[in-house]
Input
Amino acid sequence: MNQLKRIMGVFWMVIAPVIIYFLIMGAVHNIGEGTKDINKPIPWIIIIAIFTPIAVGLMIFGWYALKGEYDHLPESSDEI
Output
């Protein structure tokens, strides 16, 4: 099970920057091509501003999983 946690840690560390890349490329591609709301820069700024800290959190989570911080999880409040 711990090996799976470490593999998923690598997955989270790789997928987080990829998500941000696709968000930025989607914004560059869609801004200014039409009159719909998705073609304005303000919604894209909001979306990127919200999802960037989430992606950074995923990277941190993946780093801790890769280091083995989640190998032993407490089973009761006495272990905390």
Q: What stands out?
A: Residues 2-30 form the longest helix (29 residues). The chain is about 70% helix and 0% strand. The chain has one domain: 2-67. Residues 28 and 70 are 38 Å apart (CA to CA).
